[in-house]
Amino acid sequence: MEIDKAIRESDDRRLKTKYNNAIYVIQRALALYSIEEVAFSFNGGKDSTVLLHLLRAGYFLHKGEHGLPNGGLSDHDFKCPIRTIYFESPSAFPEINSFTYEIASTYALEMDIIRLDFKSGLEALLKEKPIRAIFLGVRIGDPTAVGQEQFSPSSPGWPPFMRVNPILDWSYRDVWAFLLTCNVRYCSLYDQGYTSIGSIYDTVPNALLRANKSTEKFKPAYQLPDGRLERAGRVKKIYNSVSGYSDVVSNGPNNLKTCQSSTFTASVLAVGDEILFGNIEDQLGLALCRKLSSVGWTVSKTVVIRNDIDSVAEEVERLKANNDMVFIYGGVGPLHSDVAIAGVAKAFGVCLAPDEAFEEYLRQCIGEKCTGDRTEMAQLPEGITELLLHERLPVPLIKCHNIIILSATNSTELGNQWDCLIELSSSNYSGPLILTDPFVSKQLETSLSDLQIALPLSQLRLRFPDLYIGCYRKSRYGPLLVTFEGKDPDRIELAANALCKEFHPGAFCEPTTKDDF
């Protein structure tokens, strides 16, 4: 089949991994449910177009594995009998409707056209058809993706069915890499600067793709430099009290500035009995906190846990739900105490499975020796793993949704891995980190007592909730150091001056030696 052949012949190792994982999910669903019990929700967008061709390839391979004849049919002649659901809306773009009907005709899709809202339409369809599972083109980052896994039962209050999400872990870059590599048709709106298509009332071309400031021409969607801003073309309506709804406001060019000034939270998790026994000092945690602060991220928690799979899984499950990113180090390797990856898999409820791409990197790194250990190290969380590749990394870093597993064992290795992460995030629009404005800090020193300064500091914190204001002493009888941290230098100066005005002149001064934080 042409789709499978195009991916196999591609040099894009990341795309191959994503494709293989998605095909596995599809084949697993086809093994669990009969063809009459599955359906595919198609909306004409780029994600569902990718899923359409993955389903066709997956069904083709599924038939071959079960000894059913494929007949040597070409890509266009091969018919995939999975029922297709299309929710037709009067607010849809004409181009979306046209593309959907053309695709249905080209690939002889068995399409059910529903002109009700999604929930009502599903209720009616599931009463009429014995559908138990529906393939969806949901990806992490979509508003509806929160809490979903590759197999997720429908939410309470909805008709019962299994949501199957083969491309849940795909990025914007992965979607376009697939469409362009396989040379398949997609909706023409994407060549006009649209990057995420909703209705005609809430979607405009992405301003980040404007050819130049003086033209209304836009570059195609696959040229968007930062895939995290694919929804920058979604718009908000402004209500005019006189004339009703008027012009729309795009999430576009200023969205990048908003993103850069935002604050994201991370947690740092160390796995190591040696740290807990006091045999070694944990230097990587402190270094990671400093590095995260340098790119504007707030560290909400640092944790050290023992080398135990259940302990890792429980902590990861807590941290991933409350942070934008979790960094794990320690416990990575082939030894009995290296349980970090297995713990991450358990936290997400998935199994460990061999990753051919990762094993190839291990082979290049350690050669053919220690074959058993290498194979064991190539077991990664199934269906949720993304390899972070960089020319200066002999072995890729491992990312599972919002978990990044570092293999560094010392500050030098951590520095190299961090620099690679930053370069990937700066140059690749599907990079692992969103780089934001760094924190700015200021310190004041005073000989005032804690009792004298306590109330003014409490009041100051209420006046400046956007700043971190803390204080400490290096020794019991040494001067008190007051720290201001935030992203707006003017606000920091304003807060510092406000504190100084509460006391006599000279009560505060800047320390002669500033702490390195």
Condensed summary:
The chain has 517 residues and is α/β, with parallel strands linked by helices. The protein has helices at residues 2-8, 13-32, 46-65, 94-106, 118-128, 172-182, 253-261, 273-276, 284-294, 309-322, 340-348, 356-366, 371-377, 411-427, 450-463, 489-501; strands at 38-41, 83-87, 111-114, 133-135, 151-153, 162-164, 235-240, 244-250, 264-271, 297-305, 325-329, 352-354, 379-381, 385-388, 397-400, 403-406, 440-446, 468-473, 480-486, 508-509.
Task: Describe, in plain words, how this protein is organized in 3D.
The chain is built from 16 helices and 20 strands. Helix 2 (13-32) crosses helix 3 (46-65), helix 3 (46-65) packs across helix 6 (172-182) and helix 10 crosses helix 11. It has helices spanning 2-8, 13-32, 46-65, 94-106, 118-128, 172-182, 253-261, 273-276, 284-294, 309-322, 340-348, 356-366, 371-377, 411-427, 450-463, 489-501; strands spanning 38-41, 83-87, 111-114, 133-135, 151-153, 162-164, 235-240, 244-250, 264-271, 297-305, 325-329, 352-354, 379-381, 385-388, 397-400, 403-406, 440-446, 468-473, 480-486, 508-509. It is of the alpha/beta class. Residues 236-260 have low confidence and may be disordered. The strands form five sheets. The chain has a six-stranded mixed sheet, covered by helices on one side. A six-stranded mixed sheet has the order 10-9-11-16-15-14, with helices on both faces. Strands 18-19-17-20 form a four-stranded antiparallel sheet, covered by helices on one side. The radius of gyration is 27 Å and the shape is globular.
